[in-house]
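Posting this for the archive.
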Amino acid sequence: MTELLELYNRCVPESYRVTEEAFEGLTDGGELFTRYDGDCLIGYALIRGSSLILLCVDEVYRRQGIGSDLLNQAEEWAKSCGKKRLIVGHGSDYVLQGVPTEADAHRFFEKHGYTCTGYTYDMTVSLPAEKTAEIPGGVTFELSPVDDEIPAAVKNVEPAWLGVYENTDEDVLLAKVNGKIAGFCLAAAWNRFSCGRRNVGSVSCVGVLPEYRNRGIGLAMVSEALRYLADEGFTRAELLYTSIPHWYGKLGFVPFHRLWMGEKEM
């Protein structure tokens, strides 16, 4: 596991580096294809089901066909299992939600027949935030440990987040109207990519129940989350994997990664 992690951390931008504990949880299971130069791991591909979880090649060994060979092995394995398509960076199973586009790594997949299904953005804002949102009338905020009500609210907005909320040790920031949950988000010191960055807080899994939308509750809730993180001593907050950068930009968030998502019919 250590050599897989070391190669992963060499291949990704610094903001995506992880600890060994986090890496084990992200990469558990699946089929692994490797390439060595002597005793040195120089590349690998990890696939789970229909998802290509990781494809890493040491920078020194790139443009020698190693990545293409590993991708071909992964695709052949998927075909042998009856998979009809291979997904990169989206769906319900991934390490990174997309391929960072800064170094044009996504062009590799396009060259091999993958088509773009969309983009997500990682965003950051300095704390305390200069821009804030007005709190709508009748809305209150509170921090709460996960109880029976919170998973039900999450399921109503985005069932894929249930595992995140059910397994968190952090309190959840709730927006309430007349005592009922109208929205929720996590404002915490940790995300999976927090390795070595103690001053960076995280805002994630922001949701507003359908009957409370278009009232400004969501933006006010994120503004409250940023205030909370600033009060806790964080000097910057990050938000990963959003498809609505302009909305978060209203609070001063700016993109620092754009990620390409794709897939290929087998």
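The chain has eight helices and twelve strands. The chain has two domains: 2-119+260-265, 128-234.
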